[in-house]
Amino acid sequence: MYNVLLADDERLDLDGLKRLIPWQQLNLQVASAVNSGFAALEYLREHEVDILVTDVRMPRMSGLELARTALQLYPHLKIVFISGFEDFHYAKSALEMGASNYILKPMDNQEFIRTMQAVAGELDGVRARKSKDATFAQSLPYFRNELMRDWLEGRLDPVQLDVQMKELDMGCCSGPYAVAIIEIDDISWKLNAYRQDERIAMIKRQLDYLYVYCQPLAIGLPCRLSSHRIGIVASGSVDRSIFVDMLRLVQEQFLLTVTVGLGGPAAAAEGVAAAYEQAEQALSAKMLCGKGRLLTPSDIHVETAAEARDMDAILANLFQAAVDYELIKVDDCLTELFRFGARLGSKMTVYNFSIHIMTKLNTHLGELNEDLYSMLGLEYTNLEVLYQFETIGDIHAWFRRKLFEVSEMIYMKKQRKSRRLITEVVQYIDQRLGQDLTLRDVADHFFFSPNHLGFLFREEMGESFSDFAIRRRLETAKTYLEDPKLKIYEVAKLAGYQNIAYFSRQFKSLYGMTPGEYRNAKSC
User: Is residue 311 a contact partner of residue 338, using CB atoms and an 8 Å limit?
Assistant: First the structure.
């Protein structure tokens, strides 16, 4: 609804404008009607309006003088002049001023209505452009982050990269390059003593600190890879001491340490994906080489890196077997895992190895919104229970018993938990239908991996997340379309669509008619 200010010294003309024009149907409302230029200007100094309709000839202050001053206050104000035939010579000045139209008295109501419809249409266009610009500005951090992620994961060719970095105002890049992955350590158990909201806030503060610290090093921008990882593409000549200093500062200021995996250098942009893989490999050796430090491919023996990758693969299989209630496979994976443990040299190393297994399993269970320690009735401060065993065989047997318990609990919970979770997910989606909501956004909110949440959603709802979100948005759009005051593009926006053509196609695909056709059918 746009606000209109009427100014005319002829009271009968002013009353006629107020009473005879169907303002509501035009999506307009008369904010005020005054009979002098001074009164109009006084109103404008206190209130913002969208359209000024003014007579050209008024005593003491003409409509042209009013319009000039009004445009200084509101440069985007739309102005419609009304005047008698004898004053038509003012039209040239009015049009030079940027008037939307010039209407002669005696005024034809239909001509005036067509004029106001046209002006309202212009304002609709301005509002749509502003909305689009605002939406893009809000989405810009996401687009930038996804661009860096695509580059790191090898989904962009150099030409696309250069063009998109310029489009997103991220500067330009030139090699050589190095890639660093910074991971917060021990989040799966060191924060167990805190409430969930406290844990989220603590991790966010630490990630924000790391993001700001790394920003001067990064080509483009640092990239949020997960809830506890940041990736950066840096100059290939980056000084290692910068990361060493960062590790020290983090240890002084935060409860949790961080570990850095560094890959590269890569001579050209297309080599960044390989450097990213090197950084991941370096980081995967954290269990055997230690945390809270900088790890590079040159620091890690080839066999050590291979063993770390093998252990991670076995742990992933172990987790999946526990989730699927495959107890024989759980036993087989544990046996294979503890073959590595049997080769470790000292009791302390075996203890650290066991803690690593607990941490990894808890991280995996976190994807199911579960907590290993609470499931087993353990406090993270009581993990010394592992150190009291005399042999690695005792630790192996303890893990077998505990994992069998966990597997059975997951199996029992699974039957009732999925429905409760998906109910919450559906409520979360319904509350945000007007936003550009992705499966990744919802998964991050509920602390699930997108793949796993997508699988649970389809299992419970019988359709994919995207199909459900589209259907829900279009059902909402149908409700809004029953309100004749809303424009089609406003309905599209309320339903979460920025592109009205795309909205119309999806609406017709589901309901067999366009939004306009649906509205007409409902109004009959």
Answer: no
Helix (H) or strand (E) holding 3: strand 2-7
pLDDT greater than 60 at residue 237: yes
* Whether the bond into 106 is cis, omega within 30 of 0: yes
Instruction: Evaluate the omega torsion of the peptide bond into residue 158 and state whether it is cis, within 30 degrees of 0.
Output: no
Distances from the Cα of 215 to the Cαs of 140, 251, 395, in angstroms? 17, 19, 44
Intra-chain end-to-end CA distance of the chain, in Å:
25
Residues 19-47 have a mean pLDDT of: 89
Q: Is residue 382 over pLDDT 60? A: no
Q: Which two tokens stand for residue 351?
A: 């203890």
β-strands 177-184, 258-266 pairing:
antiparallel
Separation CA 368–CA 417 (nearest Å): 10
Where do the H-state alpha helices sit in 8-78?
Answer: 11-20, 37-46, 63-73
Q: What type of residue is 311?
A: M
Average the pLDDT over each of 47-51, 70-74, 339-343 and give the range with the smallest value.
339-343
Residue 311's H or E segment, with its range, is helix 302-323
pLDDT tens digits, one per residue of 184-206: 987 766 777 788 888 889 999 99
Contacts 24+ apart (CB under 8 A), 284-287: 284/308, 284/309, 284/312, 286/183, 286/185, 286/259, 286/261, 287/311, 287/352, 287/353, 287/356
Q: 0.85 cut: is pTM over it?
A: no
What is the C-alpha separation between 284 and 260, in angstroms, rounded? 10
Check: CB of residue 13 under 8 Å from CB of residue 103: no
Q: Which residues pair with 226 in a beta bridge?
A: 229
> Looking up tokens 């809830």, which residue turns up?
227
